[in-house]
Automatic annotation (TrEMBL):
Catalytic activity entry: dihydroxyacetone + phosphoenolpyruvate = dihydroxyacetone phosphate + pyruvate
Subunit structure: Homodimer. The dihydroxyacetone kinase complex is composed of a homodimer of DhaM, a homodimer of DhaK and the subunit DhaL.
Molecular function terms from GO: glycerone kinase activity; phosphoenolpyruvate-glycerone phosphotransferase activity
Organism per entry: Selenomonas bovis
Protein name: phosphoenolpyruvate--glycerone phosphotransferase
Length: 207
């Protein structure tokens, strides 16, 4: 269902979207951080895009590991190591795989989310990217368990991630730079949750 060609297409779509949303994500980060989230991700995914031709013929695990490594080594901010770890862990879950089904996709997504939790020492409810990703993963797993196909299930995951982004507006940040603001972080959406939503939208569109 997802082979190397489709995986490369997904990464290209994410790279394009990050470039397009660079200013918007940076504006969100301006409000509660240091105003570089969009710049960080656009730079990181530009490096990913450059590396894709070398990765295109490899198995899915190797492609995702290469993507993760490009993010870790090209993004200065917190989001580089966090997203980098997520893609590397997802790659670890797909070692040697060349064409995966919905269940394997969900397992890789879960490995990525667990990687972020571990690396960021964070959990849901701290106003981070996890507040988009955790509800999305839960919705994906529930939809697949109910017998829905991957694209439909991912549609539900995207809807859950949207609610998650809206939820970040209502809570205090306790991780990352936004936590320095304490109460003043309320009323603003988390930039990392927003970029995660965008990535999920791109994956779903390409499927
Ligand atoms: P920096 O804060 O270093 O400038 P970015 O602006 O690129 O890095 O990324 C900020 C985003 O990273 C936040 O919006 C949040 O979603 C996410 N983030 C920060 N710290 C953590 C953490 N410990 N765990 C999970 N996500 C985090
Ligand atoms: Mg920042
Ligand atoms: Mg920064």
């Amino acid at each position: 269902m997802i082979d190397n060609k489709k995986m490369v297409e997904i990464m290209q779509a994410i790279a394009k979207r990050m470039e397009k949303e660079k200013e918007f994500l940076t504006e969100l980060d301006n409000a509660i951080g240091d105003g570089d989230h969009g710049i960080n991700l656009a730079r990181g995914f530009a490096a990913v895009e450059q590396k894709l031709p070398q990765l295109a013929d490899k198995d899915l695990g190797a492609i995702l590991k290469g993507v993760g490594m490009a993010l870790v080594s090209n993004v200065g901010g917190a989001s580089g190591p966090l997203y980098g770890t997520a893609f590397m862990k997802a790659g670890g879950a797909l070692k040697g795989e060349t064409d995966i089904d919905a269940e394997k996709f969900a397992a890789a997504f879960e490995a990525g989310v667990e990687g972020i939790k571990m690396r960021g020492k964070a959990h849901e409810g701290e106003k981070t990217m996890l507040d988009a990703q955790c509800p999305a993963l839960k919705a994906l797993k529930e939809a697949l368990a109910a017998g829905k196909d991957l694209k439909t299930a991912m549609g539900e995951a995207v809807a859950a991630a949207k609610d998650g982004v809206a939820y970040t507006k209502t809570i205090i940040a306790t991780k990352g730079r936004a936590s320095y603001l304490g109460e003043r972080s309320i009323g603003h959406e988390d930039p990392g949750a927003m970029s995660s939503l965008m990535m999920l939208e791109e994956i779903t569109r390409v499927l």
